[in-house]
């Protein structure tokens, strides 16, 4: 059974890849991983390392910045804080298991 942190990072990786409009192989080239590894991340079978998680957070964060109309920075800050909280939660859960 997949753990919650793996499912959360699976969705993060999938959203980042799809936002860029890339297939798993091309996304893997960008992050330095094989297509098979990207597939395992997206299925939640394997948790991506911190650098991959942060890369995905940065991709999604940049997309949010691009969509924010002037005057909506508070909403952007809230969205980014939520993403950061998710990453910290995943990190803490992985640390607890070691």
Structure, explained:
With 98 residues, the protein is mostly helical. It has one domain (4-97): Orthogonal Bundle (434 Repressor (Amino-terminal Domain)), CATH 1.10.260. It has helices spanning 4-20, 24-31, 35-43, 50-67, 73-97. The protein starts with a helix and ends with a helix. 20% of the residues are buried.
Name the features.
98 residues, mainly alpha, 434 Repressor (Amino-terminal Domain), 5 helices
Mean pLDDT: 82
Largest sheet: none
| Number of DSSP-assigned strands | 0
Q: What is the H/E string?
A: HHHHH
Cα radius of gyration in angstroms: 14 Å
Query: How would you sum up the global shape?
Result: flat
| Amount of beta strand | under 5%
The figure for the number of domains is 1
Considering DSSP H and I runs of 4 or more, what fraction of the residues is helical?
over 70%
* Helical stretch tally: 5
What is the CATH level 1 assignment? Mainly Alpha
Q: And the CATH topology?
A: 434 Repressor (Amino-terminal Domain)
Which structural category fits the helices and strands?
mainly alpha
Distance between the termini: 18 Å
> What's the architecture in CATH terms?
Orthogonal Bundle
Q: Runs with pLDDT <50, length 5+? A: none
């Amino acid at each position: 059974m997949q753990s919650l942190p793996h499912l959360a990072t699976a969705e993060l990786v999938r959203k980042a890849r799809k936002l860029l409009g890339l297939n798993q192989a091309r996304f893997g080239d960008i992050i330095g991983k094989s297509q098979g590894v990207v597939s395992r991340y997206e299925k939640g079978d394997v948790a991506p390392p911190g650098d991959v998680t942060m890369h995905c957070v940065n991709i999604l964060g940049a997309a949010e910045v691009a969509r924010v109309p002037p005057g909506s920075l508070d909403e952007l800050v809230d969205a980014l804080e939520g993403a950061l909280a998710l990453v910290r939660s995943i990190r803490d859960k992985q640390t607890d298991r070691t």
